Amino acid sequence: MYLLGGRGYAYTYPMSYGDCSCSLSATCIEQSSMFRYSNGRVLYSVPGMYTGCYIVESLLQSNLKCFYNQTCINKVLSYYATPPSMNITALDNSLPSNFFPNSTLEEVINEMMVEQFIPSVIYNTYYNACQPTECTYTYQTRNSIIYIVTTLIGLLGGLITVLKLIIPPVVMFIRKKQERSQLDIEIIEGEERYSIGQKLKNYLITYNTFPSFPPSTDERQLQSERISTRVYIILLTLSLAILLLYNSLINITETVNDKAPTMTKYLELYSTYPQTLICPCKQVSISYNRFLSIEYRFHQVCTSVFVKQDWIDYLSTSYGSDDVYLDDFRLTSSFTFQALSALCQLINQTVSNRLSQFYSSQYVSASVIPSEIFDPQARTLVDQYISSTTTDFLLSLTTIRNTTQSNALFTGLQTNYYFITQNDTQYPDPYVVAYGNCNCSSSPKCVTQSSIYNYPDPTILLSVPGIYLGCYVIESLLQSNLECFYNQTCIDQLQSYFSSTSFMDITALDESLSVKFQKNSTIEAVVDQLMMEQWNQTIMYDRYFNACEPFECTHTHQTKNQLIYIVTTLIGLLGGLITMLKLIVPRVVRFIRREQVQPTPPIAPTMTKYLELYSTYPQTLICPCKQVSINYDTFISIEYTFHQVCASVFVKQDWIDYLSKNYQVQSISTFDFRSMGPYLFQALNAFCELINQTVSNRLSQFNSSQYVSASVISSNVFKSQAQSLVDQFKLSTTNDFLLSLTTIRNMTQSNALLAGPLTNYGFETDIGDDDPYIYPQKYGVCSCVASAICSYPSRVCGYDGCTTTPLFVPGFYMACYIIESLLQSDLRCFYNQTCIDQLQSYFISSSAIGFTSLDESLPSRFLPNSTFEEIVNDLMIEQWNPSDQSVMYERYFNACRPSECTYTQETKNSIIYIVTALIGLVGGLTAHELISNEEIQWNADILHRVLCACTHVGLVERVKNTIDDKHFIPTSSGRMLTSDHPSHARDYVRYYLGPMSSNIGYQLIKLVRGQCKDTGFAEASGGLDLYTYLKQPENQDYLLLYNGVMTCLSTYTGDKLVTGVDFGRFETLVDLGGSRGTFLAEILQHYQNIRRGFIFDLPQCIAEVKSADEFESRQITSSRYTFVAGDMTDSSTIPQADAYILKYILHLFNDEICVNVLSSIRKANEQRTDTLLTIFIVEHIIFSDGTVSNWQAHGFDIGMAAYGGARERTEQEYQVLLEKAGFQLKILYPIQAPDSIIEAIFIK
């Protein structure tokens, strides 16, 4: 910049570094040095450091070699006026590094300034996160011994009976034939012979299967036996016929497996069994590049000469040595085509980078997806990629455009500001450039036709068709088109005004190559489509199928029983039928029923049915999803409400124009609110629009993301995940926007870009001095060189400059950059009508407009004096309104579309199974007496009487047979009382019916009457409280019995407690008094992201844990759990963790011990750097409001009273305990009466 004679119009010219001009390249540099300013002599050139067009560009080309050298650092510091207050030590070159001391900063930044990435691949963590519900495999084997024996027994009876019927007649017939052939029997003439028919008739009439022994000669009795025989045969025939028809006609579901199917085989199967065919993928997750290919073709201008450096260099010399005005096409065109080249390169790089990310994304399918579903999904993925890439690029571009305009950054071409120094001052004044009725203070989109002028009297020689000049080069380019450059005549005419010495042979663009765009399409319209003429996508289903690599296909279909099955079944039943029909007696034979686990037939459930099933079978219910991958927008709907200012008049163009016109009429200081008002409210409008567009774009991407679930997720888990997804969306959207904003703010300050209104740097000139010098603005003692956030209160100045201040505008500040000013300001004045009216009184009266203040009565999370930075940090959003979680779950369930649900349950054999098994077995088995155990001397009579009594309470059941009724077997309830039953119900019964508990119960009566000086437990235990008693070595048996009770309670209530609270928020978890680890094992199985759990208990209890069955049975790896011995009242023995569980612990103790236990947990974590510590108290909470049934809790409370000092407590009583120990009660979860969970936190 220079001013002729130090006064008048300030001219700008591009800086050059060597042969490189900043008008052609931003990367021009020269060695950074320190000078003696009296004569311009170089004092010292700093090794590796450069200066150039922009500070950031010169930094990127610099290196740190000087700062690895202490001597160089000391040399540099020696030229500073004052020594630094800090000790400056050189970087350590001996440290291992991927970079060299002379590596440029650009090389370092290209590697994200990271010396080394240290990945950690932990397979067991992946496996635990995968959380397989089951493993299935097939192998060739023989029938089991049980199956063989039962089948042989069933067939044996039938075969014996059949052979008994067939063999004797056959043997008799053969022997008679032999006797006739051996005997010489004289044939008597005239003897009557029976024909075969007569013999058969006689045989049938006399056939008797019920002969008496010895044979009767009573004709009446013989007749009865023959009638019984005929009835028997008829019934036998009918029964066999019915069984034959039943087994022949019933439909059975047959499952067919095809190993390693080819795609041809799969398509063939799918065409026949589309509803039931399932082909699990060997490779569940497949990269998009395995089956998708995306190619694209840019607008031809991006490969033309018009974006090459030769063309740009040609334009920069097109005016030769002539002096041209700043608005002449020959001067501005090189910048215009640099901007066009930059857009082509940026879009190409953006598309390429995003395509690499897209190709590396994973398509998840648990089983082969049919092509008619896969193809639309793949097309949707491509459409989403194109849409998200486009919107993200345009959003970034819009953000830069809006922040540039909001900060009123000065362009070196002076197309938005120019400066004039009056004769009576040393300081140039900034003036806003206007194009027609549009000025650059109110809009960056003001433009005029770009032209070539004749000098010295500037008359237009040529208006370049389609090309415009405006406030900023980018803004004018976006409104321009390439109409002239499709026309060879126009290009030739344009070149005719260029310097002849720089002629370049240029060929016009080919209009016939354009598919999507017209020659007069604006550059903005082209950029809105990422300058793409055409996208070409290829979807390769065969490659997807091969990548999926299904190892088998299974399908089911309806069919009939095979002949061999029918025959063997009838043979097996025949013997039983014959025997039963022979034993028609008045007794009812009762079959010994046994329990078995049998899968429930598949059903197609509604959500109501699923919830009903899940409430009953939460552990075994599996409902595979027909749609494994579901778009978020299918079930999540997120709405939001902006701060009211974004819909107010204060972001409208009318208000901005009103402010702009006001200060142009009068001579007002740059630092006057009336001067800065248009820029401040443009910036506010830009924030509203950018944030709205950011949230909208990110929401579109979020909605198209995939939620993957192979089977239906339970309601409580889904709701927790859905809430987490919404929270992550809000957090990531906020962080990404603020990161982009911070990047632009920092780069603007780092490059020391000049604000047009001269709010960060000013000029000063002397008469006769052509070169003005620049000085940084100061706000108080803060200089814009050191910080962009220097500020002071905004004001309305008097006509004598700002030496007098009629009004300080409440809440508004002036800073180095306009955006920085806005972020430190607030809207308190614009909530106050009086303040607005007072502000308007300083505007020119002819432009006064009635504006209404913001409404403070509207509900808002922000205060009138909340700064804009605080509001922007929350994306200016008053409220997020995600859809109701119950509605979300219903939508998810309907999208998942489970075709069936399977679960397992304990049940009795069906009546058909019992009858057919009984019929099959009765022909081939005999009853046996049970043999008593001689090693134990039982009182048989008393035992028999006890067992008889137990049949009436369902613990055993009597087995009846043909001999006696003294045989018993345990029922399912009875089996729970065995020593090896996993429920530990035996320990529970022994504990509460044992002598200690009985004694304590007796003490309750004395406690109520006031006849007992000590607690019930102390009276029974010799003066000890429960915890002290359990710690005594001589009471080891009682401790183990007590732990069995805790295990029993965990087995009974575990699943409800595990899913009632989201324990998955934590990485480490301790179960205090965890016994065998049953409850913790349930938690670790359900929440695979918990890294480690600790089972904490007394040393003698931990020593008795012989194995980790509770964990191994749930496939929980040993790296995820640890048994720790200690004392919960001794903080030094308690392991550190994120959260602690006290289940059925605190109700055993008085308040003093409870506070001691809680304090020990807090003290154990005092050295941790985490600020948050969480505990969960699982107890029988007493509710006083009547909302929850309390009878069980009160019952336990009476029991605790017998233990003395112990009690069940109300929520308020737990709150007092927690506060005494330094914790804060956060929330209470009523799980299932009488159990509740209290969550409490300690914040450092």
Automatic annotation (TrEMBL):
Segments forming domain O-methyltransferase C-terminal: 1007-1224
Transmembrane segments: 145-167, 231-249, 563-585
Annotated Pfam families: Methyltransf_2
A GO biological-process term: methylation
UniProt keyword list: Membrane, Methyltransferase, S-adenosyl-L-methionine, Transferase, Transmembrane, Transmembrane helix
Gene3D superfamilies: Vaccinia Virus protein VP39, Winged helix-like DNA-binding domain superfamily/Winged helix DNA-binding domain
Sample GO molecular function, one term: acetylserotonin O-methyltransferase activity
Enzyme class: transferase
Catalytic activity, EC: 2.1.1.4
Function description: Catalyzes the transfer of a methyl group onto N-acetylserotonin, producing melatonin (N-acetyl-5-methoxytryptamine).
The protein's name in its UniProt record: Acetylserotonin O-methyltransferase
Organism: Adineta steineri
